[in-house]
């Protein structure tokens, strides 16, 4: 790699550059000779190279995430060089694209959107969320296709407002509540009023401060919940209380440019408030409190490791 040894980067940074070069599919015989010579110079070089290869292996394990991130030329070029996944980026997730394609309203990746519906209701769509609406003279139906949404429903007793997801529904007349669809698991959180959730022949009425859950195969359940932390994303922050670090990183990844990889997914729990509009600052704060190191492999690949 021409001129690489003359840079002032750390050994780890040099090792990353070598791994990215070799993984890109464009390495030459001279590159191979160069990395062998660099590895022979110092045992520290070999250790750093081994760590970098392990991180790259982790990146390959979550390659599916890259398919739902922005695909501009500025995005694709670093990934092609950084991850040898130009081919991955060109293989769409057919189901996801079909879902987004049929949506009446969708929110851009990494951004929360506020939408005024035709009946006077307002919906906040979380990053990447999508809904399809069907409003008639008798009913107001919303299909949650992806992600999560918060609904401030305009009162109209003659037209119940129903949100459908995973073979279940959440119905209200005039209230405020959120519905989240995550990997075939649905969560409803009620902020104001009452919401009736239903799946098959089973129905449960939720009051303010309660949450309901169901899945494709599971039954309805209800419990007291924390609406503030559940829907804090609407206000640009995540509020977590004794939550697994890995889950929090997955949440931040929703709003981060590119992809975040947490190498050590040990059962560590964290609490705090994090600004989803400044995910880099949130990652640095987490790294400081948890003894982690943040490495920016490219503008689109961020790695947290010990």
TrEMBL record:
Q: What's the superkingdom here?
A: Bacteria
Alphabetic keyword roster: Membrane, Transmembrane, Transmembrane helix
* The FecR N-terminal domain, residue ranges: 15-54
Q: Which residues form a coiled coil?
A: none
Report the transmembrane regions from the record.
75-98
Question: Would the keyword Membrane be found if you checked this record's keyword annotation?
Answer: yes
Q: Hey, what's the signal peptide range on this chain?
A: none
Q: Which PANTHER family match?
A: PERIPLASMIC SIGNAL SENSOR AND SIGMA FACTOR ACTIVATOR FECR-RELATED, PROTEIN FECR
**Protein name, as recorded:** FecR family protein
